[in-house]
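Form P-L/3: holo structure prediction, ligand uridine-diphosphate-N-acetylglucosamine.
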Amino acid sequence: MDQLAIIGGRELYGELPIAGAKNSALKVMAACLLTAEPLVLDEVPDLADVRQLVVLLGNHGVICRRDGARLTLDAAAISSTTAPYDIVRKMRASFNVLGPILAREGHAKVSLPGGCAIGARPVDLHLKAFEAMGASIELEEGYVLAEARNGLSGAEVEFPFVSVGATEHVMMAATLARGTTVLKNAAREPEIVDLADCLRAMGAKVEGDGTDTITIHGVSSLHGATHEVVADRIEMGSYAMAVGAVGGELLLTRGRRELLGSAAGVLEECGLTLKEEVRGLRVSRWGTPTVSTSITTEPFPGFATDLQAQFMALMAKGTGKASVTETIFENRFMHVPELRRLGADITVDGRTATVTGVSRLKGAPVMATDLRASMSLIIAALCAEGQTMISRVYHLDRGFERLDDKLRAVGALIERVREDA
Ligand SMILES: CC(=O)N[C@H]1[C@@H](OP(=O)(O)OP(=O)(O)OC[C@H]2O[C@@H](n3ccc(=O)[nH]c3=O)[C@H](O)[C@@H]2O)O[C@H](CO)[C@@H](O)[C@@H]1O
Ligand SMILES: C=C(OP(=O)(O)O)C(=O)O
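OUTPUT (holo model):
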């Protein structure tokens, strides 16, 4: 397994390109299953998760061609309506092929995704919504068997709490349902708006995305389209926090302040300067201290759970105490013991961690435990004295495109130590 070696203390300067969002690309890729015509996606990040979804789509008969950041997906015929356990278990987002296949073919068999390191992550809201739309759902040997032989019907679905995955999943399926579907208490994440934009380009009738009520008027078929994936707000927020932790100035190209939601204001409270420019978001911190600031994770526009671990690394050298409350996932503090190995002072009480700023962090061997936790270790290592070796970086490769190249190009001392080296 590859490792990353980082020597901390170097400020970051220059331009850093922000890729298309993983959490959007994976959903718009699944949307290709809704049409027999090619879907052309631009700014698709080159990530392990994207490659994994290409394998799954190939299993369904989709012809996928990559040319740089452009991915063309041609689902002229769906050759298999089964998404097997061996592929789905490797990546949760692959569960979202169920809705499009069900909507287009009238039946689908998709492995349950199971839990993962950060929490149990059930899919009951997805399945209840499909039932409300007239599908019969059975669970058999770890698979969801969904059937709607006469097609799905529009329905009113009120989610008891905000679910990004369920909102996206039902929105896709509803595009081909008979009649109108209304989603209440829908998620408002930028990735939802991006998916809605892609679906509209394909001929779907979607309204209200970006608000908590989304209306989808079903149509009989969708057509091919070209769509550019929205910039990755988590990659953008992570590099902004790296600047906050170690100092310097980066132009995050394609970045936009509004994509950060409330995290933008939080970063400013912490002492960062954010400036929107034509080409992207400029973030800087020059010599001023990192002000400890408390946050609670919430659905968008609240502070993103996917930035919580990175924020704790930023707070590790803050001026005082910061409390960090995680409300989305029940087990998303696995980075805490690893950050402590670097000298961070963090205590955890239930869903809340308290980070007391220390004057220095010191490099140490640490282990990445999940995708965003890995990024928190990178940020802490960038501002730690001496060398940090981070193992299990395959977690990072799931969601951060060319991380070591991008950081090296802006001045970080970071090297990938290859498994076979
Ligand atoms: C609201 C929120 O911030 N969602 C995050 C969630 O999206 P993701 O789509 O993975 O998860 P959801 O938004 O669906 O989950 C929100 C909460 O609802 C629960 N749940 C969800 C579906 C369901 O059928 N039943 C159920 O109980 C989940 O376990 C979780 O506690 O993880 C992604 C990856 O980290 C993040 O990018 C998203 O920002
Ligand atoms: C946990 C994440 O991804 P996934 O939902 O694919 O597990 C993430 O993007 O932080």
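COMMENT: The first strand starts at residue 3 and ends at 7.
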